[in-house]
């Protein structure tokens, strides 16, 4: 089971980002009507910038795909780290109902980056002074 845990975590995280990137980029699911006003304003700001929302969703798709196929996993984790942090902060301050999913994404990212043997040595090497 220990050998399969990094694989399961990588595939789960990859699927979540790949699927949410596709859904968000092509707006396949309508926005829920009961979102908090602050979150609606936040989302409108992202959309108003014209470039940021598509950039975010394309980044999620590419990194999710990299995680799913197992290529450049440490790079994908480093790129996704600020996105996961922002997801957590948005749910902590603007929409607490989604905090559980944000925590799961954060835990999967932290596990893969710092505790899973295939990827953690490369991530930890970024924090060593040379």
Explain what this protein looks like in three dimensions.
The chain has 130 residues and is an all-alpha fold. It has one domain. It contains six helices and no strands. α1 crosses α5, α3 crosses α4 and α4 runs antiparallel to α5. The relative contact order is 0.15. The mean pLDDT is 95.
Relevant terms:
mainly alpha; single chain; elongated; 130 residues
Number of helices: 6
Please compute the radius of gyration using only Cα atoms: 16 Å
Structural class: mainly alpha
What does the average pLDDT come to? 95
**β content, as a range?**
under 5%
Shape: elongated
Poorly predicted ranges (pLDDT <50, ≥5 residues)?
none
SSE string, helix = H, strand = E? HHHHHH
Question: How many strands in all?
Answer: 0
**Proportion of helical residues:** over 70%
How widely separated are the two ends? 36 Å
Biggest sheet, in brief? none
Please indicate the count of domains: 1
């Amino acid at each position: 089971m220990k050998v399969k845990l990094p694989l399961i975590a990588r595939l789960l995280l990859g699927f979540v980002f790949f699927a949410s990137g596709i859904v968000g980029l092509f707006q396949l699911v309508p926005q829920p009507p009961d979102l908090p006003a602050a979150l609606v304003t936040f989302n409108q700001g992202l959309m108003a910038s014209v470039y940021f929302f598509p950039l975010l969703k394309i980044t999620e798709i590419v990194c999710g795909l990299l995680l799913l196929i197992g290529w450049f996993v440490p790079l994908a984790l480093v790129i996704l780290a600020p996105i996961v942090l922002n997801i957590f902060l948005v749910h902590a301050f603007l929409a607490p109902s989604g905090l559980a999913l944000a925590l799961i994404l954060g835990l999967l990212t932290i596990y893969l980056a710092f505790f899973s043997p295939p990827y953690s040595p490369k991530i930890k090497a970024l924090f060593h002074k040379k």
